[in-house]
Amino acid sequence: MSQKFDVVVIGAGPGGYVAAIRAAQLGKKTAIIEKYTGKDGKLALGGTCLNVGCIPSKALLDSSYKFHEAHESFKLHGISTGDVKMDVPTMVGRKDQIVKNLTGGVSALMKANGVTVFEGHGKLLAGKQVEVTKTDGSVEVLAAENVILASGSKPVEIPPAPVDQKVIVDSTGALDFQNVPGKLGVIGAGVIGLELGSVWARLGSQVTVLEAMDKFLAAADEQIAKEAQKILTKQGLDIRLGARVTGTEVKGEQVVVTFSDANGEQQLTFDKLIVAVGRRPVTTNLLAADSGVTMDERGFIFVDDFCATSVPGVYAIGDVVRGAMLAHKASEEGVMVAERIAGHKTQMNYDLIPGVIYTHPEIAWVGKTEQSLKAEGVEINVGVAPFAASGRAMAANETAGFVKVIADAKTDRVLGVHVVGPSAAELVQQGAIAMEFGTSAEDLGMMVFAHPTLSESLHEAALAVNGHAIHVANRKKR
């Protein structure tokens, strides 16, 4: 007799485990299925984000930035330290410990909320039956009233650069280098490529980023992208746009990369090569042929605005469905689905999902870009406040970048907040909160912001939208 559950979740990443917790909180008998094992060979919940994604990369980004500050900036503050060295295995070990603490925390949350955890591979059969293939090969079938598919994504592989996790690595391998590569190549100037490239550049690697597209950060606001490219190039990242990798050859401990750009075919030799060209949904053996759930040709599961699939009672969330592949988007979809299963009318605002790149300075945005609004024919007013005018930024030696606020010219409603600079993610979140309540630029300008703070730059940019900035010169109205 198969076990029966109100909700069965396949995948325990930031979408799945959050959905399971919320479903259990709402009184649903919930089970979650996960097969990922950590470095110790034991089941590790939390998905890519916790194990080999957002969290470990931030640990390395913070460690490498502290090293960079000690090396480059301390003397500015009058601090002399002598020769500063980085012990890479210790840095990586700290990262592993953080991951272990957090995955252990997710397990504890499952227990605390009464969620039954199954270790193994989950597969949706017809009639909302879920097959669990355990590590020992045994199979159990669960009966579910509702199923949530949250199987996540994995790095895209490209034929010219096959990953061996020794010399040519993906984002997972790049988190585990045991020493600093002399010369590091990165294929892809997206979020992952820039973050991982930054980590090793700060520690002394000579980093070359090969990006096939002609535009840098095409998804970001053009003005922000331009400034970010300038800052990152100044930091030592050699960013080559329009560079299409055509082949790689591993020679001993090194790899020769062949690529073509505006200057024709070229070759570069690296000690390590990171392939970071995007991610694709993990849907292999997830759905039985007669499950009734439909996918597109790229492996994304078709869902409506509320993450419901073509089968009543079956939902899909996170990286396996349309939209940005972001942990916070997956988590909120998980909450929405759990609440809808419980009969609530919860919906999500897909227009206000913040995007962040955790380089230093950070690059972040929420809402629409200037180029997309112009393409839609929307008349806009734009306010910009450089951090160079901020006393707090000066005190912190963090004056690169700016805050940009875009508002509708007719209604003054804020349509986008874009930041490159210190604490960009936090400032953009302030913008997102305000935009969620339908703020106008005038509203933001009338609020009292503490002085001296970085947040004042958001205040100043909002004032600048209508030519009322106090601490920066206002643009002349044409």
Automatic annotation (TrEMBL):
Signal peptide: none
Residues at the active site: 451 (proton acceptor)
Paired cysteines (S-S): 49-54
Protein localization: Cytoplasm
Cofactor(s) required, per the database record: FAD
GO molecular function, one term: dihydrolipoyl dehydrogenase (NADH) activity
Location of the Pyridine nucleotide-disulphide oxidoreductase dimerisation domain: 353-462
Protein name as catalogued: Dihydrolipoyl dehydrogenase
Species of provenance: Pseudomonas flexibilis
Taxonomic path: Bacteria, Pseudomonadati, Pseudomonadota, Gammaproteobacteria, Pseudomonadales
